[in-house]
User: Fold this.
Amino acid sequence: MKYRSLGKTGLKVSELSFGAGGFWGMRSFDEKEAARLLDVALDKGVNLIDTGPNYSGANAEIRLGRALKGKIGSVVFGTKVGTHYLNGKHVKDYSLKSVERSIMQSLNNLQTDHIPLLQLHSLPRHMPDETMSYLFKLKREGVIGHLGASVGGENAKKVIADDHFDTIMIQYNVIERRSPAELIQRAGEKGMGVLIKSPLAQTLYSNDILKVRKMSDVWYLLRALKNHRAKFLKGMKYRFINEIPGFKGSEIALGYVLQNPHVSSAVIGTVNESHLVTNLLTSERSVPLEVVRRIEAL
Assistant:
């Protein structure tokens, strides 16, 4: 595993990080198996973990806290604030009272008194001044190590222009790359840590995307159809990456993201050990230049 600077935070993080959410955090997925998969990632050199209080029906943080018991001091983990899972729905609330409650709950869930990276989960139209003052207070007190935001589009531009943020998390992959690449470059040149969500583009380029073998396949397919329906046809243009000699499609997809010098770490999530190990080994490989050019020609 290779490591990169997380902007100006002083932290060195694995260029591939573990996403503790999705099906991994669901109660229907065996907790012992979830903890074992996390251990595989840690054994392979991963030292950055991403989660959120609303992930996996609000179970991901709780599960991660139990899985990291006794190990939490050896990893950098980030959680989020601003999105809450209430009565089966994801609700945005950046009021001071709600943010205070969310952060205290995250500390309890993760069984810690320190959150190395707290990210705003998108930006509201207006962030209450008292909420930002509270976050700055927690940062001064050491409860929060660094402050970031998981955003896209115009909100990403706002975060990059705001000197209060240490990191930014943005979607970037072989299918969705040009506009994000410009934002990533701006953030990197400013000295911000850049985390990538959805680096595998929900594997919409895969020849096997519609092959369903087990429950987790159903869950990921339905989520892709619900959230990324418009990208299905676009993904077909990139199926050639599955035919590159000596590479799997996921290795090309991840390698493409990692060849961007401003990327600090790309977050991957899976409940398949074989997929996890293959993806983590991408850190040791480089995508052939002619393949990069072919991707960017589309």
